[in-house]
Amino acid sequence: MPQLTWLGDEQAKRAARGVPYRLLEKVSRHGTAQAPNWLIRGDNLEALKALLPFYAGRVKCVFIDPPYNTRSAFEHYDDNLEHSQWLSMMLPRLELLRELLAEDGSIWVTIDDNEGHYLKVLMDEVFGRGNFVANVFWQKTHTRENRTDVAAVHDHVLLFARNREVWKETRNVLPASDSQLERFTNPDNDPRGPWASLPAHAKAEKGRRKEQFFTITTPSGRTVDPPPGRCWLYTEPRFKEIVADNRIWFGTDGTNVPRVKKFLSEVQAGLVPSTLWLYQEVGTNGQAKAEITTLFPGEMPFSTPKPEGLLARILHIATNPNDLVLDSFLGSGTTAAVAHKMGRRWIGIEMGDHAETHCLPRLEKVVVGEQGGISAAVGWQGGGGFSYLKLGEPAFLEDGRINPAIRFATLAGYLWFLETGCPHPSGRFDSPLLGIEGDSAYVLLYNGILGDRRPAGGNVLTSVVWPFVKALAPQHAGRWVVYGEAARMAEARRRSLGIEFRQIPYDVRMR
Fold this sequence. Notes:
CATH topology of the largest domain: Rossmann fold
Number of strands: 23
Strand content: 15-25%
Strand order of the largest sheet: 1-17-2-16-15-3-4-6-5-14
Number of domains: 3
């Protein structure tokens, strides 16, 4: 497959691996105390790396609205990056987002023509060309800019799946509109209910059976052949069976060309999404500005916010209630607000002061039931909550060793992810036994988790400490991987017990 190259691309391809792993510290809680939603303030590259031990492979939908690199000054973003810098900024973030996506997950990225086509190639490389789903054209404005040579009235929404074969079986269709439902009527009072008629012929491609070419006699006696280059959908015997089942419509007087009756009760409960989204359906930038102005009278924090209707459509297609949604360029907070109102779990990441000055108060208003955007459409009356977090100090020192200030649960989550490649099923660590994966049991002796059992409060593996560890999983007969400050048990005995010891901090490194 052709590859996209640019100045600094090799360094960008190594960037995700070298991102420091930082701790996530809770600052405050808002609404329901144990709500599973997170608003994170900090650099989104470091925040995405910090999320891996908790959420790798668990995010159902990623939506991001990155800087468009339009060479114009935005108040809250440096949107005047050189092309190569922009690509180098996007690549490691896309790589980490890929690792966070679930197998049936999808990523949606809004962009314009300045970088849209390069972004498509870049995402081909990161997610695989076979996982490209669509380039949606969103009509972002209904007005025409007459001061330019060609007026741009649309943005792109690039859609990739983590695994398209899996995603296409789980994505949702759009509800049918009233105008589309009006096509279904019941002029012959069929007891099976309303129906719409479809052509009874199809393109006569190579390989069509000759039995699909025959003359039909209508109830009025008129004879009908398939149009030139077409054939009937069925063989003659099968066609007669369908006629007998009253599934062919010849018109009220029986003289029309035959059409197939498709009953509303048999039609897919909705419509397959198209790649053209009109402003009347999902809103415009101008509508989004009005939504923000209502929330923050007298100020406009962003030049091109996205309307809640646009996010609502994306989340309707890509997720179901309680699924996890992630936006690492949270901006004005629209993704989190819409996800909250639609009953999805969410994580939003923003790095600037407006994480506190705009995102935080906006989401607080959502919790208490603000009625802007999609609130009326989804019946939102308030509820739920979220935690506000910030990136804390690095988990590793400059030489790559673990920061001694790190707490047990944080280190446990990182080690579990390091060893197994996936987050812990429960996400809770209140025992030295982190869990059993395959034939291996993983144990962490750290910060006196065993209590005051000498030496070093149970952080050292000894013959005295071992029975307490073994008692945590007495039936386990496989390998034991034990992390601790030191081992005062003979190596031969450890081997006989199936123990692999790894010393803290020397064997715990950022990898």
